[in-house]
């Protein structure tokens, strides 16, 4: 090596050995980066889009070596695929201060903001102004210390010294995706994996952490979980790789892992690092694989990390390949077409043989066509050349250890010395340095560190207004959420009493339809359904081909008539209305209207009425679906004949006929009560859920107490209804006897006409009959009309017809069916259910004293139990705490963003 080359190598080695923390940063650079580090410590970097460095490239392009060279962090490297998931390296030059010395109630986050990289200012730009800088540093220290709440005189770096903090690395597992690569609905906390205090142990531990993420089922099935895969650090020798855990060895090599890649991340949090930076090392882009889906998986993963505007893209471009056609270059152009946030890093320049001058000169021209010098990098070496139009940020070139060097466990310092010697001793690179001294700013790890730092700072300063705006918006959103949260209860017994009073008032409002009529309308529909079911239980008789029921169209009431009208609309419905008149249905006429076979006998009429089509018609129009035929009434009377004299009917037969229909009321009555009770349960559950929404213990206790109360009121109502039904079933109470007799005559006339089927008379025939009736009157046989004479003629079934007519009359009186009275209520039967339900169940549901008594009766001493019942929901308490902490973090973040360190211009 020539003397000039030796001098150049010494210069490169001197700068290459300098770490990122002690390169030629200006104070602005260091403090701006310290601000971003503070934001990361506060956990708001993602929300505020704090600029982050992302390294990407093809598989085995030397990405991980670039991370190590830039930050002094050894990561797994090999010729094959060694990065199978993103690796996020969070570096800080100082450790967090103890919680006791922090601000905001012991938070170490703000205390971290008071620290900046330790050690004296170094670099060619600061040598002539050392005394001035010391004075300014003391002033700035006072400002930062005051903002962080530290005692006056405290210097950055802790303890007033300039020594770096003890180095350690916490490795964590960040699981944001499931095994299929689908993002989880909620991001779980990062899981600690291990703590490393020897840099030589990093690579082994990172590989173990990757294995845990790539084998989720095996880890889940292993006792001890992820901890069982941690390398044996306790027995590891300093400077030597630790032994792998037995569970990790059982997984064998990566080709046997459950997942070939995962978007979940291994996180390295490093204290006492070479720089305050966050670097994300992505899996290498693969171009061929037996499973094409994996190629797309890795591409999608890389693209997702390149897309954010706040990410700086460092492209690893191996020498010997066309940089413009590499996949990472094409992906970067998609998200950064003007190249304002992407830098090319030429790796492995030693792959180009020294005798291939053309290829080497092409690399030199690519590196030489650099953009403007990074902010704060100084002007050493002359002015920069014109930037490449497509790559304004230019390219760097680094030479990292080969696989042979890695196998020999080469040290970081030796690697940098070898790099400097390579460029200084290379025929073409050394010559280019002599011609273009400014190339030194683009060659080697030291130059790369300076360039990345300068670009990162530029992006941070450019993002400051947007980060401040986002921080204020997030603050406002958190404040709004906190303001919307209910305040913690101070006087629990009094508040519980007020809440129970509000529950009772809400129940009363719903049951009485004072405001919201939904519940009232729901129960009213249940009462209407009960009435319809009662109507279907009323007696009806088939006499010949005529079906005679208890109620006519007016007797069903307006609600039932409307329901029947709503159900109608077809031709068959209109035909049914035409043949139903006065409570009687002409079955023969209906059959003819529907086009059915002729109906001439009682048996044919019964069969026709029980057909599916006719049953549906009867149901839609609330007409009787079940009935007794006259033949069945004859059989019933014959069965009860005893010692009666001729001409008398057995009264027991009449009682049995009435009882047959009375027993059908109980089912609809109890069904209606059950439906209303279920609605009352739903109502109380809803009201309590709303009032006690933030207090799960109180909600459960009050809900259970009111459930038992509704059940008790329902039982009391059922007992009352049962009593009413027993009274109705046990005895025959006709009420108004005159009305009963009038109805008996009316129904008997209908039935006799149905039985005898008289022919229709013309006006002339009626006139002749009137003359004959007048002649009979002269002999003492007086009939008021033809109908009276007609009905006076005897039939073989007079007793049975009289029984059926009396049954219809009794139920019409019992159900209130006389004249217009039916339009108001169904009488005893209709009122025997809705009124007790309203009085005994619903009206008492919202009694405030009874509500409080129900809670007390459930064993809840209101005074003693109130604090427990009104304990805040754990989720709400956790959310409140999260919001409060987030509000504090955002406040500190905003202070950091407005601090003098963040606000100074890059070129003071």
Describe what is shown at a glance.
The chain contains 37 helices and 14 strands. The chain has 908 residues and is of the alpha/beta class.
Number of helices: 37
Low-confidence stretches: 1-26, 96-164, 372-386, 557-569, 816-826
The N- to C-terminal Cα distance equals 42 Å
Rg measurement, Å: 48 Å
**Major sheet: arrangement of strands:** 4-3-5-2-6-1-7-8-9
Helix content bin: 40-55%
Please tell me the overall pLDDT.
77
- Shape type: elongated
How many strands in all? 14
**In percent terms, what proportion of residues is strand?**
5-15%
Structural class: alpha/beta
Largest sheet: 9 strands, mixed
Name a few traits of the molecule:
Rossmann fold, 54% helix, single chain, 908 residues, 9-stranded mixed β-sheet, 7% strand, alpha/beta, 5-stranded mixed β-sheet
Structural summary, described in words:
By secondary structure, the protein is α/β, with parallel strands linked by helices. Among the domains are: 1-71 and 309-478, Rossmann fold; 489-539 and 662-871, no CATH class; 541-626, no CATH class. The protein contains 37 helices and 14 strands. The protein has a 9-stranded mixed sheet with strand order 4-3-5-2-6-1-7-8-9, sandwiched between helices. The protein starts with a helix and ends in a 5-residue tail after the last helix. The relative contact order is 0.10. Mean pLDDT is 77; it is low at 1-26, 96-164, 372-386, 557-569 and 816-826.
């Amino acid at each position: 090596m020539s003397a000039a080359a030796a001098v150049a190598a010494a210069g490169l080695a001197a700068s290459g050995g300098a770490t990122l923390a002690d390169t030629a940063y200006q104070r602005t650079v260091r403090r701006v980066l310290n601000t971003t580090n503070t934001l990361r410590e506060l956990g708001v970097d993602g929300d505020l889009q704090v600029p982050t460095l992302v390294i990407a490239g093809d598989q085995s392009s030397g990405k991980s070596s670039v991370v190590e060279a830039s930050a002094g962090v050894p990561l797994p490297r090999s010729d094959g695929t060694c990065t199978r998931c993103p690796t996020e390296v969070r570096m800080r030059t100082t450790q967090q201060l103890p919680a006791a010395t922090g601000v905001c109630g012991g938070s170490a986050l703000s205390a971290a903001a008071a620290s900046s990289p330790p050690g004296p200012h170094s670099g060619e730009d600061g040598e002539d102004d050392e005394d001035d800088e010391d004075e300014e540093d003391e002033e700035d220290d006072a400002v930062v210390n005051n903002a962080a709440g530290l005692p006056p005189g405290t210097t950055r770096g802790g303890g007033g010294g300039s020594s770096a903090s003890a180095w350690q690395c916490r490795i964590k597992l960040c699981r944001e995706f499931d095994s299929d690569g689908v993002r989880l609905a909620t991001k779980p906390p990062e899981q600690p994996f291990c703590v490393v205090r020897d840099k030589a142990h990093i690579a082994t531990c990172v590989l173990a952490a990757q294995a845990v993420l790539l084998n989720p089922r095996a880890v889940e099935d292993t006792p001890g979980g992820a901890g069982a895969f941690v390398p044996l650090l306790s027995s590891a020798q300093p400077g030597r790789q630790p032994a792998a855990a037995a569970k990790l060895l059982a997984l064998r090599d990566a080709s046997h892992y459950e997942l070939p890649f995962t978007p979940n991340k291994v996180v390295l949090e490093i204290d006492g690092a070479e720089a305050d930076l966050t670097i994300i090392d992505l899996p290498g882009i693969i171009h061929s694989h037996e499973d094409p889906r994996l190629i797309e998986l890795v591409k999608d993963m890389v693209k997702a990390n390149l897309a954010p505007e706040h990410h700086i893209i460092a492209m690893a471009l191996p020498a010997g390949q066309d940089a413009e056609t590499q996949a990472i270059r094409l992906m970067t152009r998609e998200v950064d077409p003007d190249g304002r946030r992407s830098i090319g890093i030429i790796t492995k320049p030693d792959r180009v043989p020294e005798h291939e001058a053309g290829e080497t000169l092409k690399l030199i021209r690519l590196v030489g066509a650099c953009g403007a010098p990074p902010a704060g990098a100084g002007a050493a070496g002359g002015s920069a050349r014109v930037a490449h139009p497509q790559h304004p940020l230019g390219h760097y070139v680094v030479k990292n250890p080969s696989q042979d060097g890695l196998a020999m466990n080469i040290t970081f310092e030796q690697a940098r010395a070898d790099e400097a010697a390579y460029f200084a001793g290379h025929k073409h690179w050394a010559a280019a340095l002599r011609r273009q001294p400014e190339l030194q700013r683009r060659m080697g790890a030291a130059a790369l560190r300076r360039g990345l730092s300068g670009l990162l700072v530029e992006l941070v300063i450019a993002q400051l207004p947007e980060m401040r705006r986002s921080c204020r918006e997030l603050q406002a959103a958190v404040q709004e959420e906190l303001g919307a949260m209910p305040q913690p209860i101070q006087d629990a017994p009094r508040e519980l009493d007020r809440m129970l009073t509000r529950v009772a008032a809400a129940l009363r409002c719903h049951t009485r339809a004072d405001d919201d009529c939904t519940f009232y309308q729901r129960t009213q529909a249940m009462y209407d359904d009960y009435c319809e079911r009662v109507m279907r239980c009323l007696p009806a008789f088939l006499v010949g081909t005529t079906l005679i029921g208890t109620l006519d169209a007016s007797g069903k009431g307006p609600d039932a008539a409307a329901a029947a009208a709503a159900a109608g609309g077809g031709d068959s419905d209109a035909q049914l209305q035409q043949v139903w008149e006065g409570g009687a249905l002409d079955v023969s006429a209906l059959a003819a209207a529907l086009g059915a076979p002729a109906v001439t006998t009682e048996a044919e009429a019964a069969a026709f009425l029980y057909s599916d089509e006719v049953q549906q018609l009867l149901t839609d129009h609330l007409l009787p679906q079940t009935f007794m035929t006259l033949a069945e009434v004859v059989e019933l009377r014959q069965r009860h004949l005893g010692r009666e004299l001729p001409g008398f009917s057995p009264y027991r037969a009449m009682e049995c006929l009435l009882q047959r229909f009375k027993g059908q009321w109980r089912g609809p009555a109890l069904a209606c009560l059950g439906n209303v009770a279920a609605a009352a349960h739903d109502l109380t559950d809803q009201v309590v859920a709303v009032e006690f929404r933030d207090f799960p213990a109180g909600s459960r206790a009050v809900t259970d107490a009111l459930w038992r109360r509704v059940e008790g009121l329902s039982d009391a109502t059922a007992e009352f209804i049962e009593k009413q039904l027993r009274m109705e079933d046990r005895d025959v109470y006709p009420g108004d006897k005159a009305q009963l007799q009038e109805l008996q005559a009316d129904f008997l006339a209908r039935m006799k006409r149905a039985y005898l089927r008289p022919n229709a008379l013309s006006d002339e025939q009626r006139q002749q009959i009137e003359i004959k009736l007048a002649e009979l009157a002269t002999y003492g046989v007086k009939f008021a009309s033809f109908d009276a004479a007609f009905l006076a003629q005897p039939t073989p079934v007079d007793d049975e017809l009289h029984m059926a007519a009396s049954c219809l009359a009794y139920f019409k009186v019992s159900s209130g069916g006389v004249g217009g009275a039916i339009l108001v209520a169904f009488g005893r039967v209709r009122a025997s259910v809705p009124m007790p339900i309203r009085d005994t169940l619903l009206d008492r549901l919202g009694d405030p004293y009874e509500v409080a008594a129900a809670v007390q009766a459930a064993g809840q001493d209101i005074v003693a139990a109130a604090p427990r019942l009104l304990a805040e929901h754990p989720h709400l308490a956790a959310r409140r705490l999260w919001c409060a902490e987030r509000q504090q973090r955002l406040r500190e973040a905003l202070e950091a963003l407005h601090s003098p360190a963040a606000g100074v211009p890059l070129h003071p």
